[in-house]
Design a protein that fits this description.
Layout (H helix, E strand, L loop, with lengths): L3 E5 L3 E3 L3 E11 L7 E3 L5 E9 L5 E3 L5 E5 L2 E2 L4 E7 L2 E3 L3 E3 L2 E7 L2 E3 L4 E4 L2 E5 L6 E10 L5 E5 L3 E8 L8 E5 L3 E3 L3 E3 L4 E4 L1
Parallel strand pairs: 1-3, 2-4, 3-5, 4-6, 5-7, 6-9, 7-10, 8-11, 9-12, 10-13, 11-14, 12-15, 13-16, 14-16, 15-17, 16-18, 17-19, 18-20, 18-21, 19-22
Length: about 200
């Protein structure tokens, strides 16, 4: 079916289910007070989800969200958090300088050449066999915050991980399965820990 676009210059709270095999686009304008959130009935089922704010946070934390692709999203200085069930692929650049947190009960893949930029970046897959894959040319930058990667399955890193020029930013990668990497670059003022 067709896409769904919700745009407002006020805070946006999803009260009812949004379902589209196309794109669900959520956008607020007008500054940091106009956050995006979900009530208990506001599940998102989408082929592609995009989120844009003018510095406001977006908390899409219902565990039963079913998003297949996360497209280009820009929250400025805001933070993005997304809980999801099922395989999820990041298909566009995501910027949220307040932080990026994605928890997926499925396989989480970041497509080649995409960038994730946040005040801290946390990517987690839960459940046995749910892999975390960062494909070639992916860049993850935390602007001095921590980068935390955790996989319930295997983890594949072909990426640049940059925790910035602060004094405490750390990189931690923990995999329940094999941890493999091709072309990988790590930069952090704090500790770097890789474990499988």
């Amino acid at each position: 079916n067709g896409g769904i676009t919700l745009e407002t210059s006020a805070p946006l709270t999803l009260l009812n289910t949004l379902t589209s095999t196309g794109t669900v686009a959520l956008k607020t304008t007008g500054g940091v007070g106009n956050a995006i959130g979900q009530d208990a009935g506001g599940k998102i089922t989408a082929g592609t989800l995009t989120v844009d704010t003018a510095g406001a946070a977006a908390a899409l934390n219902l565990a039963n969200n079913a998003v297949t692709n996360l497209g280009v999203s820009n929250l400025g200085t805001g933070a993005l958090s997304l809980n999801n069930t099922g395989d999820l692929t990041v298909t566009g650049a995501v910027t949220a300088k307040g932080g990026i947190t994605i928890n997926d009960a499925g396989k989480l893949t970041v497509n080649a050449g995409k960038t994730l930029t946040g005040g801290a970046v946390n990517l987690t897959t839960t459940g046995v066999g749910n892999d975390l894959v960062l494909n070639g040319g992916v860049s993850v930058s935390s602007n001095g915050g921590d980068i935390t990667l955790a996989s319930g399955g295997k983890m594949t890193l072909n990426t640049v991980l940059d925790a910035g020029a602060g004094v405490t930013g750390r990189i931690t990668a923990t995999s329940e399965g094999d941890l493999t990497g091709g072309s990988v670059s790590y930069s952090a003022p704090g500790a770097i820990s890789l474990r499988s």
